[in-house]
Amino acid sequence: MIKTWSITTTLRNPERLRDFLVVLKEIEGEVWDSKMQEKYQILLIQNRKYGYGSSQFYNGLTKKQINLIDNPDNEISFKDAEKIFKDKKYQDPAMRGRQSINPLRKLGLVAFVDKKIFITSLGNLFLGEDYDLGEIFFRSFIKWQIPNPDSDDYKLENGHNIKPFVGTLHLINSVNQKSIENGDKSKGISKQEFSLFVPTLTNFNDIEKYADEIITLRKAVEGKGRVEQREIFEKYKNYFVTKILKITDKKEANKLLNNIKDYGDNAIRYFRLTRYIYIRGGGHYIDLEPRRNVEISSLLSFDNGESIDFKSKDEYLDYIANIEEPKLPWETQEILIDILENLVTDIKEYEVALSVTEKQIQDYSEFDVDELKKYIEELRRYRRLLQENKNHQESQNTEQIESYIKDLETIFEFEDRPILLEKLSALGLHALNDALKVQPNYPVGDDNEPTFTAPANTPDIECYYENFNAICEVTMLTGRDQWYNEGQPVMRHLRDFEEKNNDKNSYCLFIAPKLHRDTINTFWTAIKYEYEGNAQRIIPLSIGNFVSILKILVKLKQQGKFLKHTDLSRLYDAILDQSKSLSDSGRWIEKIPVSINSWQKSL
Asked: Do 126 and 195 have their domain in common?
């Protein structure tokens, strides 16, 4: 029976992959036997990278152990972590370590040589301070194949023969081409189509057949109402599983149908990081990134998605360990110049639309390959700056602000809420006033849409004004894990930002659906007393509070008034001043709407 592929459902957050890799570094070079597998899992518990926040993990633990894990101020010793691990009474304890390392192996971040663990060059790149998340995952996914000599999960004789990422690009491209041939617009493939057809595409020879199935399915639902479309799709799923995948066992068929949405959603999340696919149609369709058209065309011409036949496991390990392999088909002077020319055209269109001075473009006709690659990255960074300027211009429109408000008020209806909250917060800060610069730190695709949340070691958003500076930290967490994940990191980010920009006062805006008492008490101490020797300016707001501020902005704009950054700092200071007259952090939070109302009247 064909076994569907999945990237990982163990670690849905790519940042956690890096956390797991950091811990693995402690045992690099050790023999990966059952003893070391258990040790790795114990180290993950000790470093609070596994188990924290999961009520299921707490089953079988004492109250003292739960309190030890829950409080980040408590240091967990290796002995404590070992006791916690043993008290879980796992049937196969070593299997936990094997499960935790699997995503790292699958993505080529870790490999075994002579049964010893080593971190590959790609893994070490991920461990660096200035890693590029998109580059990491692109380099990983163009090599990832099933089957491979380092895993027994898939067999060539069972029909598995594909590079899933490359095969996915081929499938989307084929569907687009067939749509155009049929007189329809190309739009990629829908999320429903993706979840059904992409994780079950296990052989490159089936790409065209799958593309034909998608086109046939679309014709079947064309012109039908939503209810009928859903019924047709559900009926087709059962046909697809039994007739195309040839799964006749009802239990196996139901299991597959229950899992493919998770597999598909996770694949979209990870593949999006590469910057080679983008989301369109209001978030419903996954398409090839048009701004990478030259690269994608080169890749599809060069690689048909077939897995590589390695003579030995060592040959395969050498391949995945080498960051220079494979040589990308567009890394030639001629094709890189094509990429540059498209990029320059894109930049000029933004400059015209924004009415800004044209950037002086270097004469790159004689650049060598390395110089061209470096210049492409420089111009992509410049394009992102222009895209942020465009966001700022568009955010001054009242209708745009009202759309931010609507999305914030209904944020729980969306799927990728943490990413959306960062994006909407950045757009709201763009809208508010005359900032010199609003810089979100989340990774983006070439369309400037966030592909994931900001890395853990940076503020979510940085804001620069004439009279002050600020960072903005956001979270969708509302429980006690809000305090664990955001308390100390937020204060540390603000202190680092203050030291880096010490010519002006610096604030931190903290936005969450609601504010947990432990988070507030942590910030309260830093505001009233000190953090690392000095008091801080932290403004905690619920999403509702932030929406109230944006609604005030809309009213001002409708009256033809302009909100200046100094007006915003007056609000921040008013909220901070409230803390001086109160002895209770809970009362302080309750008073924030009062401060916002008073500020509105003053405007």
From this structure: no
Helix H or strand E encompassing 280: strand 277-280
Predicted TM-score (pTM) above 0.70: yes
What SS3 state is found at 119? strand
State the average pLDDT over residues 162-180: 96
From first CA to last CA, the distance across the chain in angstroms is: 69
- Look at the chain and count its residues: 603
Tens-digit pLDDT profile for residues 102-139: 888 888 899 888 889 999 888 998 888 778 888 889 99
User: Do 341 and 428 belong to one domain?
Assistant: no
Using alpha carbons only, what angle is made at residue 38 by residues 37 and 44, rounded to the nearest 5 degrees?
95
E strands, 54-100, in order: none
pLDDT of residue 54: 63
Residues 542 and 403 in one domain: yes
Indicate whether 576 belongs to any domain: yes
Cα dist from 146 to 6, 121, 203, whole Å: 11, 21, 9
Helices marked H in 395-471 — which ranges?
398-409, 417-432
Phi, psi of 473 (to 5 degrees): -115, 135
Total structural domains in the chain?
4
| Residue (of 9, 11, 46) closest to 27 by Cα position | 46
Phi first, then psi: give them for residue 382, nearest 5 degrees: -65, -40
d(CA 170, CA 250): 31
Q: Which helix (H) or strand (E) holds 176?
A: helix 164-181
Q: Which residues, 6+ apart, have CB-to-CB distance to 109 below 8 Å?
A: 17, 21, 119, 120, 122, 123, 126, 140
Work out the number of other CB atoms within 10 angstroms of the CB of residue 526. 22
Instruction: Report the chain's C-alpha Rg in angstroms.
Output: 26
Q: In which residue are the tokens 């980010």 written?
A: 493
Q: For residue 440, how many other CB atoms are within 10 A of its CB? A: 25
